[in-house]
Amino acid sequence: MPRPDKHIFVCTQARPEGHPRGSCAQFNSSQVMDTFLNAFQEHDLWGVHKLSSSSCIGPCFTGPSVLVYPEGVMYIKVKPEDVSEIIEKHIKGGEVVERLQAPADVW
Asked: Which of 2, 10, 52, 103 has its CA 20 to 30 A from that of 40?
């Protein structure tokens, strides 16, 4: 596979209930990942871009977190209904979705 234009990481870290850091899984990150998988299929993004689930990428209290490289943009509190906007604006259009972007003190 050639180097992807963009690589999207979706945190799907699951920690035990009551863990002090929490985890993206408690915020339905598996649904976010499933929605990204469906969007990749629907928009035929495989081969141009790469999608990976990830363990913890940092700010567990703001999950689910999504990281887009090579830009290094982190999105927080992503819901399944946000995925289409990330795909259209950022992945296909190159424009950061500012309303979901992690603030500087988080990332």
From this structure: 103
